[in-house]
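Aim 2 progress update. The chain analyzed this quarter is reproduced below.
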Amino acid sequence: MNKVILVGRLTKDPEMRTTGSGVAVTSFTVAVNRPYSDQSGERQTDFINCVIWRKQAENVARYCNKGSLVAVEGRIQTRSYDHQDGSKRYVTEVVCDNVTFLSSKNSGSTSEPMSFGGNMSEDIATTDVTDDPFKDFGDEIALSEDDLPF
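Predicted structure tokens:
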């Protein structure tokens, strides 16, 4: 199985182009923090190249820019090509099936996610949680690590 899920920020504005047959393709790079710190206490960051096609490519180019927070779902793909100087170049990238926008283009702050991919007719369901959804469930239960089955 080849499945990738990333959450990170775009390192620069996405670059959209079209193929000779008119199909839109957008390339972008997502900066993703590693889940651990190095010996000096700093978190390392990976810069992951991504590509997305067709209508989704147009949406990413239109609604995202440098610093946008996105969630990416897709698969890893490797390919090679011959460079102008005659050397062979290798590329590893994520081919995106779905990109969810986790911040607005103008503010860069977190807002309601916008997802473009998969079934475009699906609406994003939201729930008002201003009131405690568990208020009618009774008394609080305290658990310790000894209570856990694993």
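The radius of gyration is 20 Å. Strands lie at 4-10, 15-18, 24-37, 43-53, 69-82, 88-103, 110-117. These observations will guide the mutagenesis experiments scheduled for the next reporting period.
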